[in-house]
Amino acid sequence: MNGTPRLRSAYPSTPGSVRRTAATPPSSGNGPVARPPLPPVPLAPANASSPDSLIPEHLVSYPTQRLWATLAYSFLLVWCLFDWWKLVEAEATSMGLFLKWLSIFAIYCYGLPILQIPWLEWSSAMASTAFIVHGILVAMLMFRVPLPIEGWLLFFTKTLFDREMSVSENSVRPASILQNSSLIMGRQIINILPEGSATMNPGGLSFCIGNNHPSVQIPIRFNQTSPIHIELLRFDFDTNSNESIILTSRERKKRYEDKEHHIATVSYTAKKPGLYRLHKIVDETKLEVQRRMSDTLVVRCPEVKVSAPETDKCIGDLSDLTMEIEGTAPLKIVYTRTTQKEESTHHFQSIQPENFASPLLGSTRANTLVVPGSPDFSWARSQVIKVPLNESMTPGGTWTYSIDEIHDAVGNVANFSIKGEDGEHLYPKGHNLEHSFAVHERPVAHFTGCDSRNPLKVANGKYTKLPIRYSYAGPGPDDTSHTLSLKFSPIDTLTASGDHGETVSFTEFDAKSAGQTPQINHPGLYTLVGVKSKYCDGEVREPASCLLLNPPEPSLSITSENINDKCAGNSIGLLLDLDMIGTPPFVVRYDVITKSGVRQERVEVDGLRHQLELKPKHAGHFKYRFTSIDDAVYKGHRLTGDSLVLEQDVRPPASASLRKPSGPIDACIEEPVEIKVELTGEKPFTLEYELVYGGSRKKFKVKDIDSDVYKIQTSSLDRGGEYSLALASVTDKTGCKIFLNSEVKFAVRHQRPRVSFGHLDGKYRTVEIEGRRISLPLRLNGRAPWELKYRNIDDTSGKIMTQTLKSTNDFIKVGSSGTYELLEVSDDQCPGTVDPKASNFEVEWLPRPQIKVADTAVLIPSGDRYVKRDVCEGDVDAVEVSLVGSSPYHVGYRITHKPSGTIHPKEFDAALGLATISMDTSKAGTYEYRFSELSDSLYEHDSKTFTPLILEQKVNRKPSAVFTKPGQSYKYCKEEISGDEVIPIKLEGLPPFSLEVDIKHQNSARPETVKIANVEFNHYDFRIPHRVLSLGVHQVSVRKVRDANGCQQKTNYDGPKVQVQVYDVPTIYPQETRTDYCIGERIAYTLSGQAPFEIFYDFEGVQRKAKSQTTNFRRIAEKPGTFTITAVSDKASNCKASTAITKIIHEMPSVKISKGRQVEVDIHEGGEAQILFEFWGTPPFEFTYTRSTNARKGQKSRVLETRHEVSEEHSMVIQSSQEGTYEVVSIKDKFCSFSTMVSGGEKGQKLLQF
Hints:
Elements: H1 15-23, H2 62-90, H3 95-111, H4 124-142, H5 150-161, E1 164-165, E2 171-172, H6 174-178, E3 184-185, E4 187-193, E5 197-200, E6 207-209, E7 216-223, E8 227-235, E9 242-246, H7 249-253, E10 255-258, E11 263-270, E12 274-283, E13 290-291, E14 295-300, E15 303-307, E16 312-314, E17 321-328, E18 331-338, E19 343-351, E20 382-389, E21 397-407, E22 413-415, E23 425-426, E24 434-440, E25 443-447, E26 456-457, E27 464-465, E28 468-472, E29 482-490, E30 505-511, E31 519-520, E32 524-533, E33 539-540, E34 545-549, E35 555-564, E36 571-581, E37 586-594, E38 597-605, E39 609-614, E40 620-630, E41 637-638, E42 645-650, E43 655-658, E44 665-667, E45 674-680, E46 685-693, E47 696-705, E48 709-713, E49 721-731, E50 737-739, E51 743-748, E52 754-757, E53 765-769, E54 774-781, E55 786-792, E56 800-805, E57 811-814, E58 818-826, E59 833-834, E60 840-846, E61 850-853, E62 859-862, E63 865-872, E64 878-884, E65 889-898, E66 902-910, E67 914-918, E68 925-935, E69 949-956, E70 960-963, E71 969-973, E72 983-988, E73 993-1001, ...
Parallel strand pairs: 3-87, 4-88, 5-13, 6-14, 16-24, 22-23, 25-33, 26-34, 44-51, 52-59, 53-60, 63-69, 71-78, 80-86
Antiparallel strand pairs: 1-2, 4-93, 5-7, 7-11, 8-9, 8-12, 10-11, 12-14, 15-17, 17-20, 18-19, 18-21, 21-22, 21-24, 25-28, 27-31, 29-30, 29-32, 32-34, 35-36, 36-39, 37-38, 37-40, 40-41, 40-42, 43-45, 45-48, 46-47, 46-49, 49-50, 49-51, 52-54, 54-57, 55-56, 55-58, 58-60, 61-64, 62-63, 64-67, 65-66, ...
Helix pairs in contact: 2-3, 3-4
């Protein structure tokens, strides 16, 4: 048998198997079979493949080879359809693709028979036929010839290959972008319910929760209904989330009912802040009750805390108080400020953070405070706001700031005052609600009794207190401890003018009381430089310096002479001449030793010499011993030596004498005259005297005088003239009457003394040279000497000066300018008057020469000098200075160069008031011109009064610019903006620089100049502007450079250069002129140049690169953003041409009704429900919505009406009282639209064209 029997319908045998079966010799089971002789050489093994097959079967079986051939053909066919789909999308044809596929199919059709795969071994005619059929098919596909089955091919290819590259360089399916069901979401179903209503917080009360109020009761009023289900919504301020609150049956039963009006009130206990709203009310009929849409705010109770870094202040300091307020903004605070003199109330309103927005700020408040689609409650959160309060604290004393009230935006009031208003919360005041300051007076210190004219004299080696007065401008504190800061220079280091020298020491003294001052003993100059109390820095007033001196010790020498009685010749006393050395005044102490004991006496001497007459009043032996002497500095200086001890026997007679003054006695009119009488002898005495005037004599007698000195006082003398007072006699205890001839004459003035200023050149005004002592003439009436008091009105210290005058036409010498005023005058005895018409005299100084900057000079003041504008090295510059004074002028100045330190002294003479100074610009650096000497025809140069004029000018070095790599060649692309090679330039000078660069084409005789400004660094990468470039070779050189100082330098013509080669660039153009696109649309461009191209673009800040093998480039808009083609390059030039083709991709508009959910709202008859539409996109929005019948079982919903609305905002609320199902069917914004309605058999979206 020839193999296994097969049916006629069976799969045919493999050709190789058939051959193997035919080669098997027949066999018989009845005996041995005779075999033919073996051939000499076997042709092939029995199980080998056909000799025509290229791939042996034992490597790859024939079915597998046929499968691979089929898969290869299927892959080629799909690939061909893919290329055809690209041509369909581009609406183009391609000869290149036709030749490509003609070659591929030729290789396949003629190459497959060569493999000799069983069942695929067709003949050459069959292969040619297959190639012709495929060639015709390829031609029709690649040249877009219509085919009968093109529709099926399009459907199959679109299903298989409908993926495109998006602007994000992702392969996307356009269908997934165009068919977006999330653009229109939500529906609202309105059901009409029976009548009934519920209202939360009908009274509009304010609620807050705090430490003293952990919960509040929110009333809910029900009208014509009995609820069995009450559900509230609480919106949390911090998280913007909401929670549902369902009242329990126990809470619902706690209610107040008004059965007459069918009203019930239920109170809900709120323990958390938030916005509360009625969400759902179900009555006994299982129907939802109509509820009024109103929101109730429960916020944090307002709080405040007052703080300050310190409690002690000084007069004039700022309070630096901070009020930290916490509550719902905007807030209002009322506080009281109490000082020593008054109490005042103040308030701050509208306390809120910056850029704060709140629905509570409006003049009218809406029922609902939640913006649909934007549940943002940041405005209701408790804000912590710090309010600084800075007030100047004057006067001193206790300042108290006390918080009275805080108001928040909701209407809650925290009242901290004693008396509260009805309905307000009363809080006790804590330490955080009050703050008190102790405002202290600033101390004042100065020297008393010691200044530059009255030094302090102290004995050598002795300590003394610095006479410092410490006080306060106002009431001082109990604690007067303070710190004094002193500066001291020893006496031998003081300058010639008496000021501090080079040796200066500083010290501080801590005093525990106002009267405590430092002890000093070193001679020198002490200056008070500072004073500070426990809390405040004080003020040092004049006099602020005190000079301490150590004068020599005092000494005494005595010369004595006896005094004898002329009648009896007895000694009646001693006449002593006292000569003293020391500091007047002196006090000389001596002991008088008699038989009755020792008596101590003292003599006060104002000068260095004194004559002392010792006439004892009683007879006896007297011994005088001088023991000690005091002067103004040394006290109790002991005296020793025999020459200081004197002895005498004395017996004096009775006597009386008038104690005459050293000069004539003048009496003032209408005043009495007093004259003392000295009596000697034995008491008591009887004295007789006479007063003689105008030829009349009046006698007086005084008895029983028990003292040694008697004072005679006359009555008031009303008439002027000559008077005489004479002693007639004296009688002592012995009864001896002794006649006397002691007489004193005195004159009584006929008028008071008078003073006035005299004229100088006929006027009470003079102009003199400064520093010269000026004698102001006076006219005096009276008797010398006169004591005159006057002042300089222009002296701010108000010092009153006193001078003694000796002649009627005397002068007062002054050394300061100003208006001098005569205050009062008195002569040697009587007070006088000042002539008011001639009481003022004006003194002015001739102006000292001054040098200053001329008005025409442009200089900038900088501290103690003027700065002239910078100049460049080698520039010509000058400055004008103005001279004020009396010409001619002599000016000396010096020029200092930095950093070399070279100094050049110079001087010049000027006849006019304006001089021009040439500036030195020979080398770079800073020049200082110090005008230190100036004199004119009136004044010589005085360094003490002259203030030098200092000018400063900086001379800047000239900049330079060179190529970093001179002679190098660079490559540029024509019309390309970025990506070119840069030409590095090295710059020296002060940035920013400005450059001028010459670019010369090899075929042009005249170069193009490029100006570059604001080069910020000393290295610049120069990119040549393409406007000056053309195809070919260019020579580039630096022509000029200027730096920030304004200095410039030109480069020589033969300076270093670089070479630039310019190539042409590819271009790209949009196929459409519009700019705005919608998601799902395609953005197409046309390229020029040589493929392949590289396209660089930016999408939403991300740089991307795409390749195109053809002259077309297209991307589908996957998501919104800005799509900008930034550059394109091709293979020919390797140039990257920059461009900026921008397309804006807009998001598809979307709309949500009822937050994108299906919401059912039950209303009562006559009531209304709010339908919230929320939009996303670019306003204005146009949308169409329908109202359909509510779906019922077994009934199909039908559209009752269709409406079209326009909204300028991102949300819109429509009130509706009609029952039905509301849905949006189309939405359109400014750029795009989307619709779910069937129009022409498809849903879609499009870009709006206006």
